[in-house]
Amino acid sequence: MLAFILSIAFLAVSAYQYIIGPLYFDRKSKIPGPTSFALTKWRLAFEDWRGHRTQAINKLHQQYGPVVRIGPNEIHCNSLTALRTIYGAGSGFERTAFYRMFDVYGKQNLFTFYSTKAHGERKKLVANAYSKSLMMKGVAASMVQTKVSQYMAFLEAKDTEPDEIFSSLHYFSIDSITHFLYGSRFGGTSALTGNIKDRGLLSDILNPARRRLSWFAVHLPTFTKWLYTRKGLMESLLVPLLPMQKPATYTGIRIHALEALQRFQHAAETEPGTTFTESTIMTQLWKSHESVKGAGPGALDSLDIASECADHLLAGIDTTADTLMFLIWALSRPQNAHLQRRLIDELCALPDHALENGVPKLEALDALPFLAAVIRETLRLYAPLPASEPRSIGVDCVIDGYSIPAGTVVNMSPYSLHRNENVFLDALKFDPDRWLGPKEQVAVMNRWFWAFSSGGRMCIGLQ
Ligand code: HEM
């Protein structure tokens, strides 16, 4: 009898905790959305498994409006007011544990810090190196121009043979970013000019099983970490269960970051003074390491520096290569042939002094209106990071009139913001000319344009 009563009590408590509470008594129950999503996080995880998460959330916005409940403790928003409340500078919202999968060697970095303070301190060390004025002139600009020349030579060497553009754009992207982060001597790669080892760094990134691994890392983080950190006999026994066989995604570029730092460190110790001739992200971080050496919490150790560099590489490599790939694909479609022609004409009209060794200077490219419109339209319709950017805050708040309890995970996504038909007419059409229309209209679209996020945690690569 006692067992029966205890079972009923257990069922009643579970029903309240997992069904009645979330659906009727939780403050989030006022937020519109389907019951199945409010009841369990696995409903959204299922869409993620199918590769439809971002599109499914967009459909929910179309059906339920600008604020929807997508999980027992998770909501998704799609309005300018929510954008300011959540991502505006000084909003108090912080990144969630989701980002910890991007820690490198167990070390947090710019991408994964939660707290505004820790993030701000690290950002101060590198922000200047990313400033537009430095990028457009000097060493960084000529390095990018060299990589463009090498990419053109790579394509021309293929003659009439078609190129598998997804891989070759990754060569361009890894070579450019490693030179920027590490410099030519310590870790700059040569994938474009045929270095097999450097091309090999990309094999775990280009492996399609990577998507399955990210599903596991997002939805079963502890189990996934456990699976990948077993050693010896246990490791061999678990091989069939791994979502992606080792080496898992980014293993190559993580090892590469550490090796680059070791080479740099060795040179710094054996040839003092010579290592700072090239200004790179690694030299910036190293200078701070030297100035506060061993002096408490501000001091960066070698793993902090390697983690920071590897993180920038993994943040920049796919985003850059995928944007270029979508841009080229969009222009290659027969219905866009006229856009391709206009872009060629704009580039061919550049005067000789805007070229260096036959390649346009970055400053000259930056001033081309149609090129800017084509890039912006690519980033709007095919944002390389289209999905939700989760945040949370430790106090209750109000978003678009809904009371949101402390600790709720709130999200917004470029995919949904960029498809609002009231802002982007004929939103699914690739139409660069929309960015060349009346100023007031462009100003409104700019407010909704969110490919690089916004506020204190926006992309550092954009500046
Ligand atoms: C088309 C190219 C790029 C796009 C669309 C892009 C987009 C983004 C977005 C949306 C975020 C915020 C992510 C979030 O909060 O969930 C971000 C952050 C970041 N990106 Fe980019 N990115 C691009 C290129 C780059 C490049 C080339 C680098 C560096 C070489 C870079 C480094 C970073 C870093 C370090 C962060 C973290 C910033 C912070 O938290 O302060 N990105 N990027």
How would you summarize the topology of this molecule?
Layout: H1 2-25, H2 35-39, H3 41-49, H4 53-64, E1 67-71, E2 74-77, H5 80-87, E3 94-95, H6 116-126, H7 132-136, H8 138-157, H9 165-182, H10 196-200, H11 203-206, H12 210-219, H13 221-229, H14 232-238, H15 251-270, H16 281-291, H17 302-332, H18 337-348, E4 355-356, E5 359-360, H19 362-366, H20 369-381, E6 391-392, E7 397-399, E8 402-404, E9 409-411, H21 414-417, H22 439-448
Parallel strand pairs: 2-9
Antiparallel strand pairs: 1-2, 3-6, 4-5, 7-8
Helix pairs in contact: 8-9, 9-17, 12-13, 15-17, 16-17, 17-20
The protein binds protoporphyrin IX containing FE (HEM).
Residues 110-111, 123, 177, 312, 315-316, 319-320, 323, 384-385, 389, 451-453, 457, 459-461 line the site of protoporphyrin IX containing FE.
Fold and architecture overview:
- This protein is mainly α.
- It has 2 domains: 15-100 and 388-462, no CATH class; 101-207 and 249-315, Cytochrome P450 (Cytochrome p450), CATH 1.10.630.
- It contains 22 helices and 9 strands.
- The strands form 4 sheets. A 3-stranded mixed sheet has the order 1-2-9. Strands 3-6 form a two-stranded antiparallel ribbon.
- Strand 7 (397-399) and strand 8 (402-404) form a beta hairpin.
- The longest helix has 31 residues, at 302-332.
- The protein starts with a helix and ends in a 15-residue tail after the last helix.
- The structure holds protoporphyrin IX containing FE.
- Heme binds at residue 459.
- Its cofactor is heme.
- Belongs to the cytochrome P450 family.
- Keywords: Heme, Iron, Metal-binding.
- It comes from Neocucurbitaria cava.
